[in-house]
Amino acid sequence: MWAGLQGSQHRRATPLRPYGGVMGELIPLFPLGTPLFPGIVLPLQIFEPRYRRLMRDLLSHPESGDRRFFGVVAIRQGWEVEQIAPAEALYDIGCTARVQAVRRESDGGFRIVTVGGERFRLLEVVVGDDPPYLQARVEWLSDEEAAEEAAGDSDGLRIPGAVEGSPPCDDGLDDVVAAVARGSLDLLCSGVRALFTRYVAEVADLGSGGGGDDEPTVDAETAVLLDAVSGDPEALSYLVASAALLTTEDRQSLLAESATRRRLALEARLLRRELTLLQTLGAVPVPLQQFATPMTVN
Question: How high is the mean pLDDT of the chain?
């Protein structure tokens, strides 16, 4: 799924308002075959009756109500998740899809454009007759993200002789450690960008038949997207996670990782693996047509 990217400065501008509930917040649920990532544009055609009802329910909220979103979760097994235990059929980490544009179809369906918003963890899946679509009680992962980001930044950056959990130093070592952390993150981003650029070029070369003498090069649209996330490690990590031709399990692992540094490190390993497969087998795990989906920066 490479449907586009929305700048990270727009992703968290307005906090999600709760739907209410005792065990977490109750939100509408939309199962898909692959995860959605924060900041990624996802267009959808809504034709099933239950999801038409979902759209009507969302559109009934006032424009200022900030309720036009639903939760996207990847399907672990099967397609008719209501016919089996939803907790077993769905992954437990998802991402909200904020509705940005809606076009009503003459047959009663909808064409919509959504953007990935906040990550959440499923606490309970609610199945009922009214509404006919799935709902879920969820917990938002913003606090976990903040804690994991701090933990991720400290990975491998322990001061010699320091005891974990000890108070900060007063002699400037904390500043040094912070500077090293920023520098190492910059190096990690640079490495992932280079691997991803090479990977995109190799996939495009394979799709065109390859065999030429020229070194594979990245297309202009990919270059624009990479430029759009320049200086934003989190946005880069989500762009790579959504665009690379990875399995659902790999993508879900990336979505479940709360620390940007660790997500990027995992992507570096996955991209090296995929490049090896491309070069030795000349194969990718999903049809190349999916890779050719038009991309836009919004």
Answer: 78
